[in-house]
Each structure stands twice: as structure tokens, then as C-alpha cells.
Amino acid sequence: MPAGQKLKGLRHKCHITVREVEQASRRIAEAKGDKRFRISNGWLAQLENGMSEPSICKLFSLSVIYHVNFLDLVRLYDVNVDEKGKYEPVANPHLTQLVPADSADDLRLPAVASNAQGITTLLPISTDRTSKIKLPSSQTRGSATLTCGYVGLNDFTMYPLIRPGSLLWIDTSQSKLQSGSWHNEYERPIYFIELREAYACGWCELQSNQLLIIPHPSSPASIRRFTYPREAEIVGRVTSYNTSCVDHGFDEAAVVREHRAMRGKK
Known about the structure:
This protein has helices at about 5-15, 20-30, 40-50, 55-65, 70-75, 85-90, 250-265; strands spanning about 95-100, 110, 125-130, 145-150, 165-170, 190-195, 200-205, 210-215, 225, 230-240. It is of the alpha+beta class. It has an eight-stranded antiparallel sheet. Mean pLDDT is about 80; it is low at about 110-135.
């Protein structure tokens, strides 16, 4: 059912006319000292017939008059504020970040445009095509200690083991660094780290009060140091990941070479 018809149904449920809605909204607008909250009976008729869409102010007035939650009215227009976390990786694909675990299965991430170049700016993305990414099934997937992370398109820390654009499963119960030796890179624990207004993914070492984020030997990234735990905290250990074995539509090898060239100039 169209949103306008649903709004009309709410009005009928309250047993009020469009004229009464107009009068009630006028009182709200006068109380707030803002005419944007006023609803004319003609505009309401157009809204209910699907000929217009409401502003935030008018939708607020309708929520008050109809005795319904404002966010419930917003959802009538296919806007669900609970999906904010789900679409953050879509809006900011260059950033490494956490993703709501319950939305990871059906998350569609933008595909990188084939002509993307450079590393000092956000890699351009194509908005007309997407690639659906799924993580491996797991019996412990519903565990409260599991969350999901996304490796930003500018994050080459664990390249090529974990490529930019990968999704990660993170066990938040394993937030303490493991010490010891490992036979190979696959045995060494990988951690997801929360930084100041950012996230990172990589191998970690703790030296006194310094947390070192160690990149893969083949990565163009450098070791990063942060004061622990003031500047960096361990979210958890990466227990599985979904990564591509090929590039994401841009010349990944050229990006890696430029990363290394930039590092050599430092």
C-alpha cells in the first residue's frame, strides 16, 4: 500500500477530517513559532493521494496529531534509521570499519570503477553496479561475541592476504593479544583495532605501552605505533574473512607500487 494511503488510514483511525488536521497543525506551528509545521487541508489531500511527499516538520506534526511514533511515519517512505550502520560501508568504502553482523549477509558494496587511480584521494566508485559479498557459514555465527568488520579500499595493511574491500568476522571475546611463536602467517592472529575516529586490521605486537600494527610482508603499508590503550584498543580477533583473489576493478598492482614509492620517500 502506498505511503499516502497508509497516512489516510491513520487519519481515519483517529476519526478526524483533513480540516481538523489543519487546525491541529496550526496550533502546533503557533506553539513552536514555526509555520513549517502547519499543514493545509489541500496539501494533506495531495499527500494522501501520493501527489507530494512530506517535509520533516510536517511529518512531525502528523505524528503528534495521529498519536504515532515519528520514526514509524518515516519508515512509510522506505527510510529506516536502524539501517544506518548497514549503509556506512556503502557511503564510505575507503574506510575500515565495523559492520552490523545481522546485515552482513545482504550487504551490497559498491564496485570500484575500472579507471580509479592514485592513493591520496578516495578511490572513485561506480554507483550503478554492486557486488554482493557473503561470509562463510558458521555454526557460531549467531554468537553474541561475533561482529563484522569491513576493510576500507585504502587499507592495504594485510594485502595480499586480506585485500581492500574484504569483510571480516571478529570474535570480540578475544580482545587480548596472544604471545608466542607461529609457524606461518596463517597461524598468526589478526586483530581488528579501534583507533581515534578510525579502525584498522592487522597483526599486533605490544612493546611497553606501544601497540604496533604490523602489516603483511608483501604489503606496501608501514608499521604503525599507538599508545595503548589510550590511542588504540583491540576490538577482537579476526576469525574468518571473505577476500577476493583478484583486484576490485582497478589496477591494484599500480596502487601497491605507488604506496611503496610513497613509503620510500618518507
